[in-house]
Amino acid sequence: MNSSVATAVSDVTSIAASGQALRRFLHGLPGVDEAGAQARAAMLASRSIKTTAKRQALDAAISMIDLTTLEGQDTPGKVLAMCAKARRPDPADATAPPVAAVCVYPDLVPVAVSGVAGSAVRVASVATAFPSGRASVDVKLADVKSAVAAGAGEVDMVIDRGAFLAGRYLGVFEEIAAVRAACGDAHLKVILETGELATLDNVRRASWLAMLAGADFIKTSTGKVAPAATLPVTMVMLEAVRDFRSAHGRQVGVKAAGGIRTAKDAIRYLVLVNETAGEEWLDPRWFRIGASSLLNDLLMQRTRMASGRYSGPDYFTMD
Question: Which residues contact 230 (CB under 8 A, 6 or more apart)?
Fold first, then answer.
C-alpha cells in the first residue's frame, strides 16, 4: 500500500472538502502500469484448477451471480421465470446453490420481490437513469427512492462519466454520496462503465472516488457498452478495494458485469479475486458476477462433472 495513499485516505472529510483537494488525491494515486497489468491478468488467467476444486469453484461462481434481465421487452412473466431459476438453478439437482441476486429495472422490482420471497436471493435494481446516467440529480434520486420503496435491497447506480472525464470529481462524489443516502439500508453498487473511462489510471481513480463517497460495491459495467468487464480492469478494481480496506478499514465489494459467458471465464475471475484481493473476497457478499447467460454454462459443466456427460444446451431454461 502506497504510504501517501494511506495517509491521505485517513481523513475522507478533508479529501472531499473541495474539488481541488479531491483532484490532488486522485491524481496522486500510484499510476497503473498498463502493460504490466495486462501481463499479470493474462498469467493469472492461465492458471488451472484441479478437478477436486473445480466443483467448488463452479458452485461458488453460481452463488455469486446477479442473474440479470435489463431489456426494454422485459415482462412480469419473464422476471418471475428468472426468479424461479435464481432460487433453484437446476430443478433436477437441489444441491445447486441459489444465485446471489436478481437484477431488474425499478418498475419490475415488486415482481422480483414476490418472485424470490422466502429465499435468500436478493433483489437488485438499476437506477439513476441507467445505462446513460443522463438525467438531473432530482430524477436520479427519485429513481433510487422508488426502487428502494418497492423492496430493492441493492441499487446499481451509474456514475456521470462525462463529469468524471471532464475532471468534475467533486460533482461525481457528491452525486454518489446523495444516492448512498437515498439508499438507506439498501446496498449501493456504483457502476464505473470502465469501457468509457479509456485508461486503467482512470479506472483506479474512479474506483477510489466511488469508495470515498460511500459505495458498498464498485462495478465494472452496465453491460451495454463494449468493452465491458475485462480481467485487467477487474484486477485494478480489486487492487483498489484491497488497498482501500488496508488504509481505511472498510471492505468494499467488486462486481464484474458484461461479457462473462462461460464457466472457464468465471473461474478465471475467481482466481483473479483470490490472487489480487484475497480469499476474504471469495464470497457473494464481496464479489458478484453480473450475467444472464453464464448460469447455464456453469450448470452444464456441473452436470458433466457429476454424470460424465454434457447436457444439451436446451436442457436448462434460457435466461
Answer: 41, 194, 220, 259
User: Do the Cβ atoms of 114 and 56 come closer than 8 Å?
Assistant: no
Kindly state the cell numbers that stand for 33.
502500469
Predicted local distance difference test score (pLDDT) of residue 48: 79
Residue 107's domain spans which residues? 3-307
Residue 4 has pLDDT above 50, yes or no: no
- E-strand stretches of 130-193: 154-158, 187-191
Domain-located, residue 319: no
Residue 135 lies in a domain: yes
**Residues acting as catalytic residues:** 156, 219, 255
Do residues 160 and 133 lie in contact, with contact meaning Cβ atoms separated by under 8 Å?
yes
pLDDT at residue 206, rounded to an integer: 98
User: Taking a C-beta distance cutoff of 8 angstroms, is the pair 189, 219 a contact?
Assistant: yes
Number of structural domains in the chain: 1
* In-domain check, residue 180: yes
- Annotate 110-131 with b (16+ C-beta within 10 A) or e (fewer): bbbbebbeeeebbbbbbbbbbb
CATH number at residue 7: 3.20.20.70
Tell me the per-residue pLDDT of 252-264, one tens digit each, with 9 for 90 and over.
999 999 999 999 9
